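Input (structure):
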């Protein structure tokens, strides 16, 4: 091919020469992999195709800082991950702090547009100082273009963001609009305004870590869903998450045949709920005994721990699990747990993932704090999410199912497809103590021994009212089952609900409580 081929090779060499030893060292010394190493690790070997590797930066100069690089600080393209097609981009902190200029943004929006056209997931590996200062408003517009596409792609293709360094300023809002956020421990942070601004405006001394590190966002703010010890483990986490997801909202999630028998009778489930209704247990033990091979991929594990959500499979079907956690705050619903579960349900519904609810909930958490912070508005998010979801929705009532929480946790009245109850289920307007205090106030006031009388009345209430059989007789529970049969029953039901089809009234969109 002669001269033209030589020119082609020279350009390839130029690309490789961008990365000298110092380049790798700089990033490795920060405890991070380079943008390209991350891409190589994410995609199946040799499958990555890079787009726009040679585009130069837009230029521009402020305070003597110019912008120049080819590729403009982001690697963008597509390939296969676990054999399935996906798009991704990876920001290069070594190029102007991974900051986002016009060309950098255009590469990202190109990938977003192609992913949307082709119905494929987008994975964003973020390591960025935010809008590139020297390019001014053009970089702000770049972010605007990315955000618009994040919103258009929401519920159409899965969007996953990984924060693998700073995500400052504009860099935080694209992840916030995507479905899941991963962070690395100690090397990533997210904030809209950094420690310097916080110091200037509020006179507060904070470090990047205390302001917006992985711990803060996975335990306190709930902004991020997953934390991993380093880049390599985080990338494995993304790959695992993708195994549960369809490529777009028209496909079904992957069906993965299992050698865990669908007729497995799990006798240990009979003893998992303690006799004493006030005694806690770990609902994750129930989940693991029911699902295929005990494999459960938990989402937002360290945030609002009174509710457990995550992905798993039963009989090969991918499912989303929502479960009250009696081990934390007795499994009661508060603001954070309502929002956590609502968002997860919205995701499952967008991507055709059936939802299995394991219920043991004494009610909404009472108190001035919760009321003043808006438990009404926030609890409504969960109610709205369950009600709107049209995917198969199955409930297993393990123990408590009281009051408003009974209704919200996928009751048949709001559209739950099928409700199983274990014999330990207690379904009523309120728990025995509260109910007896109200119903028998007079008798208790007049009793010689009110403590003994209350004990007796509570036992009677539990026996006559707070059980699964009244709800069963009224059809609000479809079947009271032997706990050992839970897996078998869910397997059968998932098969029967596989072709479920429900359409909602025509509308532009509902007005979800916010
Ligand atoms: C241009 C930037 C940059 C930016 C970093 N750099 N951020 N260049 N625009 N936004 C450059 C630095 O000049 C430096 O270049 C190199 O990247 C590495 O940065 P350092 O500061 O040396 O690194 P480090 O100490 O690790 O600190 C990283 C950082 C810090 C925390 C990200 O750089 C920082 O605070 N940057 C600004 C963050 C920010 O406030 N962004 C908001 C932008 S406004 P040299 O040449 O010296 O190597 C915004 C608005 C959008 O995003 C809002 C939408 C809602």
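Output (sequence):
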């Amino acid at each position: 091919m002669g001269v033209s081929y030589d020119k082609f090779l020279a350009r390839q060499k130029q690309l490789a020469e961008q990365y000298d030893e110092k380049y790798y060292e700089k990033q490795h010394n920060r405890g991070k992999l380079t943008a390209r190493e991350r891409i190589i690790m994410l995609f199946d070997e040799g499958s990555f195709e890079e787009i726009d590797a040679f585009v130069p930066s837009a230029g521009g100069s402020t305070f003597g800082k110019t912008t120049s690089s080819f590729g403009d600080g982001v690697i963008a393209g597509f390939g296969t991950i676990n054999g399935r097609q996906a798009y991704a981009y990876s920001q290069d902190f070594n190029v102007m702090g991974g900051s986002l200029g016009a060309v950098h943004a255009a590469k990202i929006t190109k990938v977003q547009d192609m992913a949307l056209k082709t119905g494929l997931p987008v994975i964003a590996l973020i390591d960025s100082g935010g809008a590139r200062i020297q390019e001014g408003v053009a970089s702000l517009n770049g972010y605007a273009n990315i955000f618009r596409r994040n919103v258009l792609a929401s519920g159409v293709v899965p969007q996953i963001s990984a924060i693998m360094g700073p995500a400052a300023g504009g860099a935080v809002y694209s992840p916030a609009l995507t479905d899941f956020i991963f962070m690395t421990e100690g090397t990533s942070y997210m904030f809209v305004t950094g420690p310097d601004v916080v110091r200037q405006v509020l006179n507060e001394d904070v470090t990047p870590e205390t302001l917006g590190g992985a711990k803060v966002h996975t335990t306190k703010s709930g902004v991020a869903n997953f934390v991993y010890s380093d880049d390599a483990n985080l990338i494995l986490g993304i790959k695992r998450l993708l195994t549960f997801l369809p490529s777009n909202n028209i496909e079904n999630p992957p069906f993965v045949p299992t050698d865990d028998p669908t007729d497995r009778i799990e006798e240990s489930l009979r003893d998992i709920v303690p006799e004493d209704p006030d005694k806690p247990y770990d609902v994750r033990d129930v989940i693991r005994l029911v699902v295929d091979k005990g494999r459960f991929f938990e989402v937002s594990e360290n945030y609002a721990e009174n509710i457990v959500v995550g992905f798993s499979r039963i009989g090969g079907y991918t499912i989303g699990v929502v479960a009250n956690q009696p081990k934390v705050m007795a499994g009661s619903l508060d603001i954070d747990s309502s929002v956590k579960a609502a968002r997860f349900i919205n995701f499952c519904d967008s991507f055709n993932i059936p939802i299995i609810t394991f219920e043991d909930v004494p009610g909404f958490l009472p108190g001035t704090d919760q009321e003043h912070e808006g438990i009404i508005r926030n609890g409504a998010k969960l109610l709205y999410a369950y009600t709107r979801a049209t995917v198969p929705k199955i409930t297993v009532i393990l123990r408590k199912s009281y009051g408003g929480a009974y209704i919200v946790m996928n009751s048949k009245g709001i559209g739950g497809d099928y409700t199983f109850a274990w014999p330990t289920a207690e379904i009523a307007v309120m728990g025995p103590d509260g109910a007896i205090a109200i119903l028998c106030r007079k008798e208790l006031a007049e009793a010689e021994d009110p403590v003994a009388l209350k004990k007796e009345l509570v036992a009677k209430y539990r026996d006559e009212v707070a059980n699964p059989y009244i709800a069963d007789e009224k059809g609000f529970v479809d079947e009271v089952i032997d706990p050992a049969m839970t897996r078998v029953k869910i397997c059968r039901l998932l098969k029967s609900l596989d072709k479920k089809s429900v359409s909602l009234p025509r509308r532009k969109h509902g007005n979800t409580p916010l």
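Notes: The longest helix spans residues 102-118. The radius of gyration is 26 Å.
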